[in-house]
Amino acid sequence: MMTDSNKSSPMVVVTGADENYSIGLVVTIQSMLMHLGPGRRVVLHVFDGGISPESKKRILDSWTDQRLTTHWHQVDMKDFAHLTTAGHLNHTTYLRLLIPDLLGSEVGKVIYLDSDLLIRRDLGLLWDEDVEPYSVLAGQEVSSPYVDSEIVFAESPEKYSKLGTTAPIANYREIGISPDAKVFNAGVLLINVARWRSERVPEQAYECLQRYREHVLFCDQYALNVVLRDSWKEIDSRWNQNSHFYAYTDCHDSPLDEVTFRDLTDDPWICHFTWIYKPWYSDCVHPHKDEYVACLRTTQWHRHRLQRNPALKRDRRTFRQWVARRKGSIERRLTRLGIIKANEDSIRRAA
């Protein structure tokens, strides 16, 4: 519950990116500022994993809101060179593990944000959540919600047929994790930094990544789920609606219940563009892409022309092809819920 003290104290937010995600970074924070509640202030720490001086200037020139104070931390990415990567995930995913080291001891909690988000709600409402006695608050991973979804949904196989993976911690038996334990997505986190320090969470994560190297999936998200399996609390799924949600037709072929499915369709508080089809590329056909671009146009990238993602030239199974096969049903569902019209209205307001 929010108190006057909570509201007067600045929120501490951490994010990180390299040059490839500089556009994503600017929109993540710009959209946060656009929806920040009255009386809120933000102290932002940017972990720079290889952003060019030109992009850094454009980013900082974009964030003109006086409620924001920004601290820029240059990071030597060579320190992560020995760690595994996967697909479009590169070594910048590990930047969040630096939080206890790069932030002062006076910082007790932070909100960590990936740099491919569109924030559509006052982030202060998440900040006001009580993180004690947990190490982290996070949203359940919608593409791989349980340690072993085939066991959880053994009597309803349609519930796991469209998952990204059914067993994100494949060696869970060896580690001693229950198959029905929930898995969280690490893109939006409310972190208890004090506990991360006292429990040596980053060090445990590095040890986990080394010890179980052959089983690591989704990089440090795997390690954090292993290390924090008994010390995290689930938040409302609307704080982290990731792109895999749109692989599901309805609640019946998804791992979600009817209410959660409708909430994520009707009003996601944060859209997390987790797939390679990022909204700063023309290839992206995410339902909230237009809203994202409208936000982008309020930054120093206001004249940026969207181009195809060069990585997709190597990938013939594109999101566009997937959506084309389901375009009618998707548009009917979004129109019924008013999302398409809402996006059109947001573009007109931004124009």
Automatic annotation (TrEMBL):
Signal peptide: none
InterPro entries: Glyco_trans_8 (IPR002495), Glycosyltrans_8_dom-fam (IPR050748), Nucleotide-diphossugar_trans (IPR029044)
Keywords tagged on the record: Glycosyltransferase, Metal-binding, Transferase
Keyword Acetylation in annotation: no
GO MF entries: glycosyltransferase activity; metal ion binding
PANTHER family attached to this UniProt entry: GLYCOSYLTRANSFERASE 8 DOMAIN-CONTAINING PROTEIN, LIPOPOLYSACCHARIDE 1,3-GALACTOSYLTRANSFERASE
Name this protein carries in UniProt: General stress protein A
